[in-house]
Amino acid sequence: MTTRERIDELHALKDLARQGPDPEATARQHGRGKLTAHERIELLLDKGTFQEIEALRRHRAEGFGLEKKRYSSDGVVTGWGTVHGRTVFVYAHDFRIFGGALGEAHAAKIHKLMDLAEAAGAPLVSLNDGAGARIQEGVTALAGYGGIFRRNTRNSGVIPQISVMLGPCAGGAAYSPALTDFVFMVRETSQMFITGPDVVQAVTGESVSMDGLGGADVHASVSGVAGFAYDDEESCLEDVRHLLSLLPQNNREVPPAVPASDPADRRTDALLDLVPADPNRAYDMRAVIAEIVDDGDLFEVHASWATNIVCALARLDGQVVGIVANQPSSYAGVLDIHASEKAARFVSTCDSFNIPLVTLVDVPGFLPGVDQEHGGIIRHGAKLLYAYCNATVPRISLVVRKAYGGAYIVMDSRSIGTDVSLAWPSNEIAVMGAEGAANVIFRREINAADDPEATRAQKIKEYKSELMHPYYAAERGLVDDVIDPRDTRSVLIGTLAMLRTKHADLPSRKHGNPPA
Question: What integer pLDDT is reported at residue 196 of this predicted model?
Answer without folding.
Answer: 86
